[in-house]
Amino acid sequence: MTKNVLVIGLGLIGGSIALALQKSPQTKIFGYDALPQTRELAKALKVVHEIVEHPAEVAEEMDFIIFGTPVSATLKWMEQLKDWVLKKDVIITDTGSTKALIMKKAEELKGMGITFIGGHPMAGSHKSGVTAAKPYLFENAYYMLTPFEDERIEELERLEDLLKYTIGKLVKVDAVEHDHMTAVVSHFPHIVAASLVHQLQLENAQLPMTRSLAAGGFRDITRIASSNPILWRDITVQNRGELIDQLEQWMAEMNRVKSLLLDGSEEMIEQYFAVAKEVRDALPTSSGALFVPYDLYVDVPDYPGVISEVTGYLAEDQISITNIRIVETREDVFGILVISFSSAEDREQAAKCIARRANFDTYIS
After folding, report:
1. For the chain, where do the domains classified as CATH 1.10.3660.10 start and end?
2. Measured at the alpha carbon of residue 123, what is the angle toward residues 151 and 199, in degrees to the nearest 5?
3. Could you give the CA distance from residue 95 to residue 121 in angstroms, rounded to a whole number?
4. Could you say which of 232, 251, 274, 281 is the most buried, measured as most Cβ atoms within 10 Å of its Cβ?
5. 153-174 pLDDT per residue, tens
6. Which is it for strands 169-172 and 142-146: parallel, antiparallel or unpaired?
7. Other Cβ atoms closer than 10 A to 213
8. What does the DSSP assignment read for 4-51?
């Protein structure tokens, strides 16, 4: 029997889910987006099997409804959902970056007998929109699910059986705990990155050369400050309480660092960095909450044609790259050539390819 899935919101996340779920047997993917041009693109790119113009009119036929919309939009859709005619056993889920507000709203649906299970696929890209959608976007990334504590196991298993085709790591977690953990590893780091860039701007007003030196390590640790400001405005507002707690802890940590600089010995300062290195080096290399491109650092000598030489090796092995750049400031940076790939597997193959053909050291930061 064919399963009908409606994906509302066909941007990067919604589009990628739609593509991934096409691998599920006997499943038909319907899609809707508020923008007519996105609907047309999704149809042309075969992101979905069928485009719908009015979700409410087809809702009764759907076994699953997935909101690939930002949290603020999803909350509005959930309100509209109350007036839709739905299948008795339909499962509703979302993809929002924060979960507490969503699950609070879901209590209203639960009171009407509608099954809602929160979701958050923790993957992303430096690109956005339906044209950036990929069926493998969520491979090996954590896909968090936030069911109600008393949710029926049969319903959860039905959703997991569908979402397994994303190849993500399905993990169940409480909604409040989800928002706390993502504040720590994703939302708060965005604030820190943005604040470092603001500080650079202030310093650059006094010493204009400062900005020119902000390459290499500075660009890497502030990369996420280039993310969509509207998206991060919404996430920050929606997770305001957790972020205030993180800021207070951060300020206490910075005061500890200040005390180390004022009164600490060289050994104490070294120990501070040593502990940080030990913890950081033990972090998993698999996909986490932050989008991190798969960068390979290549330490190459400075002679004409060396970049085309390296990219030529990769082309011979048919390894695609997504970006390439030269790091001009070499202090504390492994290599001067940074090549980005779309997957860890491509990066690994690239490192082996270069090692076979040249005596260039390669590193993964």
Report:
1. 178-282
2. 120
3. 6
4. 232
5. 999 999 999 999 999 999 999 9
6. parallel
7. 14
8. EEEEE--SHHHHHHHHHHTTSTTEEEEEE-SSHHHHHHHHHTTSSSEE
Residue found under tokens 């029926």: 152
The DSSP call for residue 2 is: P
Classify domain 3-173 at the CATH superfamily level.
NAD(P)-binding Rossmann-like Domain (3.40.50.720)
208-222 pLDDT per residue, tens: 898 888 876 788 788
Q: What is the pLDDT of residues 7-64, one digit of tens each?
A: 999 999 999 999 999 999 999 999 999 999 999 999 999 999 999 999 999 999 999 9
The residue written with tokens 């309480």 in the block is 241
Q: From CA 91, how far away is CA 300, in angstroms rounded?
A: 53
DSSP assignment string, 57-115 = HHGGG-SEEEE-S-HHHHHHHHHHHTTS---TT-EEEE--S--HHHHHHHHHHHTTT-E
Longest Cα–Cα distance of the chain, Å, equals 71
Task: Flag the least confident range among 76-80, 156-160, 226-230, 259-263.
Answer: 226-230
Tell me the C-alpha distance between 196 and 225, whole Å: 9
Q: Which residue has the tokens 């999704």?
A: 42
Q: Are 3 and 162 in contact (CB under 8 A)?
A: yes
Residue 126 makes CB contacts below 8 A (sequence gap 6+) with 291, 293, 322, 323
Residue type, 264: G
Strands of the 361-363 sheet, one edge to the other: 323-326, 337-341, 294-299, 361-363
CATH class for domain 178-282? mainly alpha
**C-alpha–C-alpha distance, residues 255 and 231, integer Å:** 31
CATH 3.40.50.720-classified regions of the chain: 3-173
